[in-house]
């Protein structure tokens, strides 16, 4: 059957990752409907506006005779910046380069002393802290130490654990120059030691080993050296190239020697230079929303100098630097390469690992931020194929592959999480499947849950029982390709997991989120009950849509319906993101300011 879609003769068509058929149609001057028809003929049901996988776009391109080129987010960002005459990879004249401090990340097994070590290092350099305000955790800090007759600075990323490291790498940000691998001498090499080692190797970053807790009577630092030789880290004293330093973070022993070793390793294996002039560029290492100060981001300058008053864009957030604070709470006027500073003045919260840059004016940074936001929304669905989902698990089982089902359980109360876990382990699990609970906890699904799910060797599915993920976390999950499944009834969760384990999972209807709104005000009416004055936070709110009510990330009421919807005084069928509306939830009246109303519809699931 012909659909009337145009045929190409090998012309190149550039599409961004996650483009829809209607985007495709735009590029080739076709009617989107004709492409839907073509896909249907090829055996796939795809709607015109749905974001497509790379495979789908390539398949359709090949079928129609177009050479589809899928543009990665990084390429696209480069192209976007080029529109504003910004080239991040531009060659820098050697005479503009100055030596910069190394940026160090501390990694290692849990409880081996990463946090204590970061504290101890920070204490070696209290001068600034004593002079100024209160030392505060901003996600990174710098210390200065005497070395070879001069003073040298070192920058430490102050988020121990591998999450920050992997999150940044996942976004293509290479922040770390050197990894300090902490291994407790009383415990030796453990699974996360190896994980850390692998991360560092994958990033091609030199390692200095801090053999910690040597103050303990049962410490055996030589055993650590010996164990690590098996992983290719041979100590200098054994003829290898890696510096091992015995330390005891708690009493503060060996810290100076460790810093010395880091500097020696940096000087031996790295060329650490950066231009100090020009507009600043770098990476956001940590960011959060502060009640009083708004969006607060710690950025690490990598090139150029950042100054108060600069217009900057970090990921999809932009703004003008209102103030910069260092790790001691002191105001700083400017920050050069490898200097971490906390920046106030952004209009939104960037993600850890987002790159930032200073640009000529407010308009430029706003336009860059807006275009990035639009693109992120479009791309956020692109990952939905190739995920480790319960359905792919089922496929693997069918094909007789050995596989594991990794889960992260989150619930509203600890009792429900325990009940869920107990029930899961009572399931009759087929031999070829291994069920692993990577983590469990009470409360909303967090960014760190998602990062754990995506960072583990086999991706994990997150089960939310009566709890949800915020829009930001959901976006990250989409981007990382992590599946989150929500349940409000335990047996339903168990049933689905059981079915997946037995290879019987039938995808039926899936919940498709339409939008969410935040309650800003509650009006009491004796006639119609409580009316919620809302602002639509994402998507659209539609009259008659199914809804649930969330308070502090937990579901407080389910099975609700948007029974009336008004924009000002007029009835509305739908209200879009950013607009205010008034609505009622049938005869459900227990609404409070700050609650989130989430609306969704049930759609039949298309199977991959
Ligand atoms: P992390 O999980 O790697 O961040 O480990 P922490 O820094 O939280 O340390 C875990 C535990 O080991 C804490 O109870 C510390 O007090 C203890 N600890 C850390 N360093 C030392 C050390 O050098 N000597 C001794 N005896 N205990 C230490």
From TrEMBL:
<feature type="binding site">
    <location>
        <begin position="212"/>
        <end position="215"/>
    </location>
    <ligand>
        <name>GTP</name>
    </ligand>
</feature>
<dbReference type="InterPro" id="IPR015760">
    <property type="entry name" value="TIF_IF2"/>
</dbReference>
<protein>
    <recommendedName>
        <fullName>Translation initiation factor IF-2</fullName>
    </recommendedName>
</protein>
<dbReference type="Pfam" id="PF22042">
    <property type="entry name" value="EF-G_D2"/>
</dbReference>
<keyword id="KW-0963">Cytoplasm</keyword>
<comment type="function">
    <text>One of the essential components for the initiation of protein synthesis. Protects formylmethionyl-tRNA from spontaneous hydrolysis and promotes its binding to the 30S ribosomal subunits. Also involved in the hydrolysis of GTP during the formation of the 70S ribosomal complex.</text>
</comment>
<comment type="similarity">
    <text>Belongs to the TRAFAC class translation factor GTPase superfamily. Classic translation factor GTPase family. IF-2 subfamily.</text>
</comment>
<feature type="binding site">
    <location>
        <begin position="158"/>
        <end position="162"/>
    </location>
    <ligand>
        <name>GTP</name>
    </ligand>
</feature>
<dbReference type="InterPro" id="IPR023115">
    <property type="entry name" value="TIF_IF2_dom3"/>
</dbReference>
<dbReference type="InterPro" id="IPR000178">
    <property type="entry name" value="TF_IF2_bacterial-like"/>
</dbReference>
<dbReference type="InterPro" id="IPR036925">
    <property type="entry name" value="TIF_IF2_dom3_sf"/>
</dbReference>
<feature type="binding site">
    <location>
        <begin position="108"/>
        <end position="115"/>
    </location>
    <ligand>
        <name>GTP</name>
    </ligand>
</feature>
<dbReference type="Pfam" id="PF11987">
    <property type="entry name" value="IF-2"/>
</dbReference>
<keyword id="KW-0648">Protein biosynthesis</keyword>
<dbReference type="InterPro" id="IPR027417">
    <property type="entry name" value="P-loop_NTPase"/>
</dbReference>
<dbReference type="InterPro" id="IPR053905">
    <property type="entry name" value="EF-G-like_DII"/>
</dbReference>
<dbReference type="InterPro" id="IPR000795">
    <property type="entry name" value="T_Tr_GTP-bd_dom"/>
</dbReference>
<keyword id="KW-0547">Nucleotide-binding</keyword>
<dbReference type="InterPro" id="IPR009000">
    <property type="entry name" value="Transl_B-barrel_sf"/>
</dbReference>
<keyword id="KW-0342">GTP-binding</keyword>
<dbReference type="InterPro" id="IPR005225">
    <property type="entry name" value="Small_GTP-bd"/>
</dbReference>
<feature type="domain" description="Tr-type G">
    <location>
        <begin position="99"/>
        <end position="271"/>
    </location>
</feature>
<dbReference type="GO" id="GO:0005525">
    <property type="term" value="F:GTP binding"/>
</dbReference>
<dbReference type="GO" id="GO:0005829">
    <property type="term" value="C:cytosol"/>
</dbReference>
<keyword id="KW-0396">Initiation factor</keyword>
<dbReference type="GO" id="GO:0003743">
    <property type="term" value="F:translation initiation factor activity"/>
</dbReference>
<dbReference type="Pfam" id="PF00009">
    <property type="entry name" value="GTP_EFTU"/>
</dbReference>
<dbReference type="GO" id="GO:0003924">
    <property type="term" value="F:GTPase activity"/>
</dbReference>
<dbReference type="InterPro" id="IPR044145">
    <property type="entry name" value="IF2_II"/>
</dbReference>
């Amino acid at each position: 059957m012909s659909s009337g879609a145009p045929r190409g003769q090998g012309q190149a068509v550039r599409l961004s990752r996650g483009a829809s058929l209607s985007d495709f149609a735009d590029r080739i001057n076709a009617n989107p409907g004709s492409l839907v028809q073509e896909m249907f003929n090829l055996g796939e049901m795809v709607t015109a506006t749905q974001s497509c996988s790379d495979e789908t776009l390539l398949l359709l391109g090949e079928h129609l005779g177009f050479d589809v080129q899928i543009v990665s987010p990084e390429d696209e960002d480069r192209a976007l910046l080029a529109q504003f005459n910004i080239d991040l990879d531009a060659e820098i004249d050697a005479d503009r380069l100055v030596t910069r401090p190394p940026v160090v990340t501390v990694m290692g097994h849990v409880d081996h002393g990463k946090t204590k070590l970061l504290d101890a290092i920070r204490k070696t350099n209290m001068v600034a802290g004593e002079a100024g305000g209160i030392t505060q955790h901003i996600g990174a800090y710098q210390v200065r130490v005497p070395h070879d007759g001069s003073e040298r600075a070192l920058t430490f990323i102050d988020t121990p654990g591998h999450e920050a490291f992997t999150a940044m790498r996942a976004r293509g940000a290479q922040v770390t120059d050197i990894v300090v691998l902490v291994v407790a001498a009383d415990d030796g090499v453990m699974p996360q030691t190896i994980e850390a080692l692998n991360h560092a190797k994958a990033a091609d970053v030199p390692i200095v080993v801090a053999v910690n807790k040597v103050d303990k009577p049962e410490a055996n630092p030589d055993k650590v050296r010996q164990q690590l030789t098996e992983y290719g880290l041979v100590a200098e004293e054994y003829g290898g190239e890696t510096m091992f330093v015995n330390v005891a973070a708690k009493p503060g022993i060996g810290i100076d020697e460790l810093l010395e070793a880091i500097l020696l390793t940096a000087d031996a294996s790295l060329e650490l230079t950066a231009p100090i002039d020009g507009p600043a560029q770098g990476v956001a290492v940590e960011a959060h929303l502060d009640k009083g100060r708004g969006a607060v981001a710690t950025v690490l300058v990598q090139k150029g100098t950042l100054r108060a008053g600069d217009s900057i864009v970090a990921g999809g957030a932009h703004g003008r630097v209102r103030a910069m604070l260092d790790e001691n709470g002191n105001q700083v006027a400017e920050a050069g390469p490898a200097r971490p500073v906390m920046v106030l003045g952004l209009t939104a919260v960037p993600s850890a690992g987002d790159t930032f840059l200073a640009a000529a004016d407010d308009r430029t940074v706003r336009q860059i931020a807006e275009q990035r936001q639009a693109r992120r929304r479009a791309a956020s669905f692109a990952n939905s194929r190739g995920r480790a989902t319960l359905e792919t698990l089922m496929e693997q089982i069918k094909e007789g592959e050995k596989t594991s089902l990794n889960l992260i359980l989150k619930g509203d109360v600890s009792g429900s999480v325990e009940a869920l876990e107990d029930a899961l382990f009572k399931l009759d699990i087929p031999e070829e499947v291994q069920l692993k609970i990577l983590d469990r906890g009470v409360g909303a699904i967090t960014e760190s849950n998602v990062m754990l799910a995506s960072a583990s060797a086999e991706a994990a599915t997150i089960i939310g029982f009566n709890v949800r993920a915020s829009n930001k976390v959901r976006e990250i999950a989409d981007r990382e390709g992590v599946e989150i499944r929500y349940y409000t009834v335990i047996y339903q969760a168990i049933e689905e997991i059981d079915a997946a384990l037995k290879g019987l999972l039938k995808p039926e209807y899936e919940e498709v989120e339409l939008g969410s709104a935040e309650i800003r005000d509650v009006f009491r009416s004796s006639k119609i009950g409580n009316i919620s004055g809302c602002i639509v936070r994402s998507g659209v709110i539609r009259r008659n849509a199914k809804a649930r009510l969330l308070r502090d990330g937990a579901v407080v009421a389910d099975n609700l319906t948007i029974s009336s919807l008004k924009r000002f005084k007029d009835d509305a069928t739908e209200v879009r993101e950013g607009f205010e509306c008034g609505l009622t939830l049938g005869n459900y009246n227990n609404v409070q300011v700050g609650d989130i109303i989430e609306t969704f519809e049930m759609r039949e699931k298309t199977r991959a």
